[in-house]
């Protein structure tokens, strides 16, 4: 269901991350919760794509 959310024990101890990068879903969700815009997050994390943020939020809703 979530193509951009990965789990790997070798990366961030198996926490939900974006596309195998060391960017946990919780960090993205936390940024949004504190008022960051998509553009601000993309500027802070240049390896991310808008779809990564969308899927991180969808994953958080499901969990």
Task: Give the arrangement of secondary structure elements.
Elements: E1 5-6, E2 17-18, H1 25-33, H2 38-44, H3 50-62
Antiparallel strand pairs: 1-2
Helix pairs in contact: 1-3
Overall pLDDT score: 97
Fraction of residues in β-strands: 5-15%
| Helix content bin | 40-55%
Assign the structural class, choosing from mainly alpha, mainly beta, alpha/beta, alpha+beta, or little secondary structure: mainly alpha
List its traits.
single chain, mainly alpha, two-stranded antiparallel sheet, 6% strand
What does this structure look like?
46% of the residues lie in helices and 6% in strands. The protein has helices spanning 25-33, 38-44, 50-62, and strands at 5-6, 17-18. The protein is mostly helical. It starts with a strand and ends with a helix. The mean pLDDT is 97.
What can be said about this structure in brief?
Helix content is 46%, strand content 6%. By secondary structure, it is mainly alpha-helical.
């Amino acid at each position: 269901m979530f193509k951009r959310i990965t789990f790997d024990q070798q990366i961030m101890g198996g926490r939900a991350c974006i596309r195998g990068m060391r960017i946990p879903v919780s960090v993205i969700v936390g940024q949004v919760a504190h008022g960051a815009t998509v553009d601000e997050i993309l500027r802070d994390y240049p390896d991310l794509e808008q779809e990564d943020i969308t899927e991180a939020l969808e994953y958080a809703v499901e969990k």
